[in-house]
Amino acid sequence: MSFKKVDIKDLKAINPFNLIGKEWMLVTAGSEEKFNTMTVSWGGMGVLWNKNVSFCFIRPHRFTFEFIESYENYSLSFFEEKYKSALKICGTKSGRDSDKVKEANLTPGFQEVAPYFEEAKMVLICKKLYNQFIDPNFMLEQSLESNYPKKDYHKMYIGEIIKCMVKE
Question: 71 near 112, Cβ under 8 Å?
């Protein structure tokens, strides 16, 4: 199966709350020579600065952090339910210590400006527009305690969706 490019505005059946919060996604950055991916379930999609955007959050101790910091583009890959165990591997193993992509039995694709996965049902190719660490002074005390007991605040990345690809 191959991907076809579609205008993201033409996607009718996307529920970002299920797509990101329940089904999860892989955020991937790097090059064909060296890249990393990780599972994320915090994020969203919308319109900002008159652009179609996505946003996601990555903690600085994650191996993927150095890749998303170093590269202008990244991908968000979305999968069918049958890949949930692969996404669990990519969310719990570190690319520093193992070849989690191989262990998850995923096939990286490199035909775009950011790596993505051939098994995905949909891929968003994004260009970084803005990033900033979460400001703990902005959050409610209850949220701080439950989400950041170690004070390891996420960095938020907002990216322009420059290409949307779905399985044909």
Answer: no
Residues 86-97: what's their mean pLDDT? Answer: 91
H-helix segments, the chain: 16, 63-70, 84-92, 100-103, 141-147
Assigned token pair, 123: 């891929």
Cβ pair 75, 115 in contact under 8 A: yes
Burial 146-162 (b: 16+ CB within 10 A, else e): eeeeeeebbbbbbbbbb
Q: Tell me which residue has tokens 């400006």.
A: 113
CATH number at residue 137: 2.30.110.10
Q: SS3 of 20, please? A: helix
Give the closest residue to 129 by CA, choosing from 55, 62, 64: 55
* Number of compact structural domains in the chain: 1
Banded pLDDT at 11 (limits 50, 70, 90): confident
CA dist 131 → 55, 82, 110, 124, 134 (Å): 9, 32, 24, 18, 10
Question: Could you tell me the residue range of the domain that residue 150 belongs to?
Answer: 3-167
With a CB cutoff of 8 Å and minimum separation 6, the contacts of 47 are: 53
